[in-house]
């Protein structure tokens, strides 16, 4: 198995009125998050990885013009139980934040091996449901930017 790269994307998929799409992890029921995933190869552009992860995890085919890179990245320690997926000695991951703004809700086709449920929620509720602090913060920043209730 090829080791995962310690570079990932977080994509907050949202509607114009401020609803956010959350996905429940198959490996950890009860853990909700936005679209996330690692780059497939070192030279994969971040925006391409973001659109690929959205497509793979939700079935949403979004045009690149709807994707926005935030020029915000978080570096965090990889949980010990997941380090075996990475090259030996890799302890930290850098997550690059994006948002994907859709005019309205769209149907979601989940990748069954990754997620068991999805839901569209008002941004405040979505932020409160996320287990990841970086995901929660990104949704809160998005809500403030949209001026949405």
Break the fold down into its secondary structure elements and pairings.
Blueprint: E1 7-15, E2 19-25, E3 32-33, E4 35-38, H1 46-58, E5 67-77, E6 92-102, E7 115-122, H2 123-129, H3 133-146
Parallel strand pairs: 1-6
Antiparallel strand pairs: 1-4, 2-3, 2-7, 5-6
Write a brief caption for the model.
The protein has helices at 46-58, 123-129, 133-146; strands at 7-15, 19-25, 32-33, 35-38, 67-77, 92-102, 115-122.
Describe the structure.
- The protein has 149 residues and is an alpha+beta fold.
- The protein has one domain (7-146): Alpha-Beta Complex (Nucleoside Triphosphate Pyrophosphohydrolase), CATH 3.90.79.
- It is built from three helices and seven strands.
- It has helices at 46-58, 123-129, 133-146; strands at 7-15, 19-25, 32-33, 35-38, 67-77, 92-102, 115-122.
- It has a four-stranded mixed β-sheet, sandwiched between helices. A three-stranded antiparallel β-sheet has the order 3-2-7.
